[in-house]
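the two lines:
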Amino acid sequence: MTPAVAVVTRTRSVSVVTQMRATMFRRALREPGPIVAAMIGLLAAGWLIVYAVRPSASTETLSILTGSWVLGWIVLPLLLGGVRGRVRPVHLRLESIPPAPAAYALLVASALGIGPAVSLIALAALPAHAARDGFGPALIAAAGALLLWLLGLTGSAIALEAVGNAAGPVGAALTGVLTGTAMGVLGSVWAVAPWAGLLLITGPPASVTAVLRWTPGFWPLDATAILLLPLALLVGAAFLAYASLVRRVLTGAARPRSRRPAPASPAHPAPAAPGRVTGSPGAATGSPGGATGSPGGATGLPGGATGSPGAVTASPARAATASAGDFARGPIAGVLGRERHTWIRHPLRLQYLAFALVYGVLLATLPMLSDVDLLAPWAGVLVALWAATMAASLVALDGTALWLPLTAPRGERSEVLGRAFAWLLLVAPAGILLTVLGILITPDANTAGVFAAVAVLPAVLGAGSAVPVWISVSRVRPVTDPRHPTAADNPTDIVSVLLVLLALVVTSAPAFSLSVWGPPWSRWPAVAVGLLCGFAAWRAAAWAATERLTRRGTEVLAAAAQTTALPTAQIPLTWDTEWARTHKITLGALALLTLGWIPVVPQGLMVLVFDIKGAWILASHLTGTAQTATALSMLALGGTLLLTGLLLWDRREPA
Amino acid sequence: METAVEIRGLVKTFGQFRAVDGLDLTVRTGTCHGVVGPNGAGKSTTLGMTVGLITPDAGTIRLLGHEVRAARALLGVLPEGLDLPERLTGAELLRYTAGLRGLDPAVAKNRSAELIEVLGLTKGAGTPLADCSTGTRKKIGLAQALVHAPRLLVLDEPFEAVDPVSALAIRRVLQRFVAGGGTTVLSTHSMLLVEQMCDDVTVVHRGKVVAAGPVSGVAAGGTLEDRFVELVGADVVGAGSLDWLTQ
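prediction for all of em together
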């Protein structure tokens, strides 16, 4: 390729790919999520700039903040489904674009988005801070900020391509750990805040500063132009790494779904190197070898396999010679065995488990940073609680596989009980162990609190095993691709999560109330009450789920198969009487989702958490218990309005 | 001869589209019965309703003299386009399906091993289903439909995307099943396959039966394919010139 042709190819590629990205981005903006993310990002970026220009701002702290920002930019899209709405190398697989121009074009296109725009603004904090030392340092910091931005852009693309898609279970578990950590820290912000405050005001300790000087986030602030060189080299290395990933996808050298190459044998010859015309990764049709029809197998690979990341592959010999002990004894054991395997292999289920474990443990233990050990015995309860809420959409995660129990004698009952027992076997040991550990590490913990945790645990475990099954067969949220789900396909439905949470809180309430507010002799009976409530909730939810599947199983199956969402009405930006007349449910949902925040935030949380008073805040006109009760009532009222709004939003009129 | 499947006045409507419109179907016990029709004729919807995976708007279905739910123990199903427990391997699917069907583990073990061997799944059965080719999935699906020794098999396009060698293996299994007194109902687009395998055939078009009976009777002395085209009244497309393709 001559240089002139190369330039034309590159320019054309950039233009086409950027237009594709622009179209995807425009469509993404129809949803409220990206707008909210942009507003939050802009607020955070604004705060960073304000902090940077303050005379008391610590250079080291700023470098930590900007470094964390770039790291967050690389990691957050993994958590928030950044693969969606992105032009990816696989989309160009059938196009005649060489790998290097394709990588360049993909990176240019990925710069079009909320993350890159907000990050560019946030990194302006670096030259703003360096300007106090003169024009030269500000110029170096500006160049460094640009290089850091390029590093974030390329790093984000690499992370999404390498971890978000290819690594499957590993990426999913990592996503769960990161999300759980972020939520855990946010949930314990009051305990972490004094440490963060110290960092912002006095800067990090000397030992941390010494290490900081070796991190890229610090180099733009060092006022030494030479330090921009390693930063530029890092950007170059990141680009080469990304180009290599793109090349592997475009040339078919990468088999993102394949971790274990299949051995060739005379009976099952290995396929010829798949050309770019044959198939795309993950697609059931057109996978390499899919049309070759080798003897004894439908594909060029032995047994027609196409490989899988992280999926545990049984050896062929073992597949045929499993012992009778490996076979399930009875229908419930059949479902239980299936679920047991699925929990440890399914990327999203692993993500949910990792999230529940990390989030629960951090919520319980981070307050100990501020010498508050009240929550430590609750670690097991919190882990079980989040594990249950994250299982609220589990049935749909399996796509339309529900047809199997629907064609087996009493299959509905087996399906429900098998799922419930599998969850219990998975979560109960962790819940019990963490509760015991929590009690052991806090010997001085409040006795009533310890008893409350012990009493609530069986209630949460009992309800947590069956209620999510009931909710997930009642509110089916199908996934786009049940065979190869990524973090982007997370079907977790907030209403289902809230319903599970509510059910678990209600189930736990009698045991909690008895152990905390009851007379001292009622503490052991409270444990029995927790057991009884958990058992009752388990029986009731299992019965309801079985009934639902027995009477409406075909509807549940049809809902799970509905993978393409029906188009919904666009909301006009100006008042439209005709639209309002024909879209009353949408209008009602919007009104409730807007008004619901008033009782929650100003009338509830501002009084309960921040003790803010004002003439228009109802609770501030009262004192003591009456004030707390009024604020709590407002919180409940707002929560009800928001939940109703969400339920209505689900039923909004089609386009 | 007894009736294995008896469907009367079956109706199913999706929105404005009437997928199945008063369909009657009778399948004799101990036969292989083909259901054919153009794309969108209502074959899969009919078979889905037959096995209880779709609720009909009207009509009655009796399988081996029972209501659909009561006949589950006697029924083996291979639907088209539905997912499987994708994280399991084929061998594991057989293991747990056998459990779901209440089979004794020792019996299940022997049957699974035999099915895996007969269907040429010795290597494919160790692969997660999510990563199996369509043909391998079909064979594993057929194995799970057979493992509990049903008396009635309902198979939706069992030969789609299956290579000729595997197709031959499946055909032999099905022929043995029917020879042993079992009944097979299968939908397909291959008229040749129906002529080779099936005793009876039902031609479905726009949700209604347009012809039914023994294959030779429906073919009326010609090939089934010609008769099919005639019955569904299709214009044979593809006769245009497309001269630009040869330039």
